[in-house]
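Subject: for your reference before the review

Hello V.,

The reviewers asked for a structural picture of the protein, and I figured it would be easier to keep everything in one thread rather than splitting it across files. Below is the amino acid sequence we used in the manuscript, unchanged from the supplementary table.
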Amino acid sequence: MARITASVYTSHVPAIGAALDLGKTQEAYWQPVFKGYDFSKQWMKDHKPDVIFLVFNDHATAFSLEMIPTFAIGTAAEYQPADEGWGPRPVPKVYGHPELASHIAQSVIQQDFDLTIVNKMDVDHGLTVPLSLMCGQPEAWPCPVIPFAVNVVQYPVPSGRRCYNLGKAIRKAVDSFDKDLNVQIWGTGGMSHQLQGPRAGLINKAFDNAFLDKLIDNPEAAADIPHIDYVREAGSEGIELVMWLIARGAMDDVAGGKPPKVAHRFYHVPASNTAVGHLILENT
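And here is what came back from the structure prediction:
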């Protein structure tokens, strides 16, 4: 049987990808950011999964205001890095896992979550930056990846509770897959930041760290954070944190198992105009 063994949470700041691609990781500004992922890269080598289920948001690359799915699962065999206006990132092609992705789609839809099934799309920095942070700059990514896109760009967006419950449904889907697979689920985006308006550049360290505390010890409370609190406390783009709740809802303790082990926690300001948050939780 397939099993979710760990969840990974990380920001997906586009400037991080640019710093990696342009060889700036050892510059004074960027060095503290990348140092926070040294543990994670070694952890990834030591805990290499068979499949990564990666929750991210598209930034008007695969989707646009003409078509905005709330939840979209990639079922393709491969995905090209997207051209976001300055050429595709020089990173490996992403290979999918159509069999598991199709199984998850079937199971989750039968659990009354409406998913958009995507058989072809390019993947932007929302997906490739987390892979780069966790895996470095390999010739090929270490395993297949199932992209799962969430609309947190155009309101209305899904609630934290809806995302958390979706994580439970994904866990149930993975558990019912009849092949022995080690699956990790990643939640990406955030933390506090705002890209426009009078509060552009807003970073709220207190909110961010309180969210990390809740995510570890009280995910039910994290799931109950209302949208208005994200906007007021974490900025307009802080709403991306609801995607972390999908990953958290898929962990063992939510289904009555043991609390997760905190393998790594990291927080740093600034990286571009945002805060970088990162967490690795292992099922025990």
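For the response letter, the relevant points are probably these. The chain has a mean pLDDT of 97. Residues 79 and 94 are 5 Å apart (CA to CA).

Happy to draft the paragraph if you're swamped.

O.
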